[in-house]
Write a structure and sequence with these properties.
By secondary structure, this protein is an alpha/beta fold. The chain has a domain of 213 residues: Rossmann fold. Helices cover 22% and strands 11% of the residues. It has 7 helices and 8 strands, in the order ββαβαβαααβαβαββ. The strands form 2 sheets. Strands 4-5-6-3-7-8 form a 6-stranded parallel sheet, with helices on both faces. Helix 6 links the parallel strand 5 and strand 6. Helix 3 crosses helix 4 and helix 3 packs across helix 6. The chain starts with 22 loop residues before the first strand and ends in a 61-residue tail after the last strand. Bound molecules: zinc ion. Zinc ion binds next to loops.
Length: 305
């Protein structure tokens, strides 16, 4: 029986494995004993499509981030169910989060938001015209930004909530309070949160999102720093894991220096104004080093059965 005998499925018509059928036959040696008829399983193109959709759902534009260098692993992998304080450039954050997200499968319930996203939902009962916060007002007018009815609607559902700091550019005294509320609510619900800042713009006195109470609340969270050449390391009294990306940064002919974040050029979140790396095509989701959960694992004896 050839693939042409099946009705067209919802796979990728260009897919060399299923030719658009969306499923592939289960190889003989993997069929359960006594199975009769045609046994199929979802094709990798279906899985890739669903993973891609989930990566974009969690953070619009994330799938276009550069893959990590071949063989490079991320210290964020395996931390998905823990509270974490991260310090790394926005570029490195996107690369590492993409690395994690494509490996977590299509159902990973993560969400990236920012101070502005939190403030937007916290102020949801205030009309756009009456909002006195320029960052929130700008976000309100973005057509493709997701707006929530309440702060809880934003912060409670995600399995992992990631709050990217340093996005807000104008001071609003409620910012730290709202972040604290989000962190405390997540703690109360026993759900993990990542707080992300940048080597050149750390959550410390002077940062728009800083408050002593917020600092005290997250003081015992594990910290991970991923520094590129040129980032300033900071000695932390509590100690933290530090990873240098240095020479491991993906490069195109060595011409691209590590991108450092600067406090004066905030990156937009969830609102469609994320700076995108124009050299990174969407299809890099499927670079050869990306592993998908459905791939059969090479386990002892598995091949000899
Ligand atoms: Zn396929």
């Amino acid at each position: 029986m050839s693939a042409a005998d099946y009705p067209q499925g919802d796979g990728n018509p260009e897919c060399p494995h299923c030719h658009g059928r969306g499923v592939v036959p289960v190889p003989k040696e993997q069929r359960p004993p006594f199975a009769i008829g045609d046994l199929t399983r979802p094709c990798t193109c279906i899985l890739a499509r669903d993973v891609l959709a989930n990566v974009e759902r969690g953070w619009k534009g994330l799938s276009k981030a550069d893959p990590l260098s071949h063989g490079e692993t991320s210290p964020l992998r395996g931390q998905e169910d823990k509270n974490l304080r991260l310090t790394l450039s926005n570029k490195a954050f996107r690369e590492h989060l993409r690395h994690v997200a494509v490996r977590m499968g299509p159902n990973w319930n993560f969400l990236v938001t920012s101070e502005v996203g939190l403030m937007d939902s916290w102020l949801s009962n205030i009309a756009t015209e009456e909002i006195e916060d320029p960052d929130v007002e700008r976000r309100r007018r973005m057509k493709d930004a997701t707006h929530y009815q309440t702060l809880i609607d934003l912060i409670e559902p995600p399995g992992l909530l990631i709050i990217l700091l340093g996005v807000k550019s104008t001071r609003n005294s409620a910012t730290a309070e709202v972040i604290l509320e989000a962190v405390q609510h997540r703690n109360y619900k026993d759900k993990p949160t990542w707080l992300v800042d940048q080597p050149m713009h750390r959550l410390a006195p002077g940062h728009l999102a800083y408050s002593p109470l917020l600092e005290a609340t997250v003081a015992d969270w594990p910290r991970v720093e991923i520094l590129a050449a040129g980032d300033t390391p900071q000695i932390s009294p509590g100690g933290f894991q530090q990873f240098s990306m240095g020479d491991d940064l993906p490069s195109t002919g060595g011409a691209v220096p590590p991108v450092l974040s600067t406090p004066s050029s905030p990156v937009g979140v969830g609102g469609g104004n994320i700076p995108e790396n124009k050299t990174a095509p969407t299809q890099n989701l499927l670079d050869s080093s990306d592993a998908f959960p459905s791939h059969p694992k090479k386990s002892k004896g598995g091949r000899n059965r």
